[in-house]
C-alpha cells in the first residue's frame, strides 16, 4: 500500500531536505568535472601518441605507410572524443552548475518558507484562541449575579457572585481566576478557592488592567494587559482580559465595577511552543520556538529560561513575515499575527530558530566526497 505524507522521506539514513539535495547535486557536479578533466587528459595523451606514431611511420618510409593509416585513425578518434568532451562540458556540466545555483536558492527559500509557515500557524492558533477570551469577558460582565452584588452590596450577594464565578472557572479551565472589583478597585468576589485568601479585601486600583477597564466607554469595549507574573497567583504567568461591569448589565449604563479574567498563560502559552509545533525529537533538539509580544519580549519559549527577555529580531523593513540566518548560521523564521475578526492580536509574532545540520555532517551521513 502506497503512503503519502508531507514530511520529507528518509534517504540513505538521512532526511531528504533541500540542503541534502543541494549537496548531492554538488557532489555529482564535482565528480563529472573530475571525469571530464580526466577524459581531456586521456585525449591529449592519445593525440600525442598518434603524432609520435605518424612521425615514426614517416621515418619508416614505405614500410610505415600502413601504420600511418592506423595513426591517422587514432588521431581522428581522439578528435571525436575531444568534441564529445567539449559538448559534454557545454551541455551537461553547464546544466549541473545551473542546478547547483538553483539548489542554493531553493535551500534559502524552502527552508525559510517551511519555518515561516509554521510560525504563522502557531501565532494564528494562539490569537484565534485569545479572540474567544474577548467575547468571554464581555459576556460574563453582564451576568446578573455580578452587577447585582455591586448595585446592592451584601455578604450574601458577594458570596453568590463568587459562586457564579467559580462555576465559570470550573468549566473554562484555560482561566486561572476571575476577579470582580467595585468601581474603586476593591475585590468583591473571585473564582479560584486557591487564591481567594490572597485576594480577600485587596484593592487592585493600581493594577494596569483595572485602570484600563475603568476607562472602557461601554460594555462593548475590553482591555488586554501584557503577559506578566501575578503576585496574587503564586507568581504564575497570566494574561488579563478585563472590562467594566455596568448597571443592570446594560452596555451603555454607568460603570459599577470591573471584571478581570486571568488567562492561564503559563500553561496555555507553553503548550503552544512545546506541543503545537509538533516537531520530531531530533529536530526539536536543535529548534527553539518562541512567541513574542509587540515589543519583541519573549512571552513563551520551548526554552523557558528565555521568557521575559528581549529577542533581537532582525527585521529592518518591518516585514510581516520572513527569514534570515543569524551569526551562528541558524535559520530564524518569523511571522506576525494577522489578527482575527476584530481582535488585532496585539502585534504578537512567532519566531522559530533552527540550527541546520552542517554540510560536513550531511556529507558524512550520505557518504559524499
Automatic annotation (TrEMBL):
Region of interest (Disordered), residue spans? 1-21
Instruction: Specify whether Coiled coil is a keyword of the entry.
Output: no
Q: Name one GO biological process term.
A: chemotaxis
Keywords attached to this Swiss-Prot or TrEMBL record, sorted alphabetically, are:
Chemotaxis, Transducer
List all Polar residues biased stretches. 1-14
Which intervals hold domain Methyl-accepting transducer? 42-92
Output the InterPro entries linked to this UniProt entry. Answer: MCP_chemotaxis, MCPsignal_dom
A GO cellular component entry from the record: membrane
- Gene3D superfamilies per the record? Methyl-accepting chemotaxis protein, PAS domain
Keyword Protein transport assigned to the entry: answer is: no
Give the family from UniProt: Belongs to the methyl-accepting chemotaxis (MCP) protein family.
Recorded protein name is: Chemotaxis protein
Native species:
Rhizobium glycinendophyticum
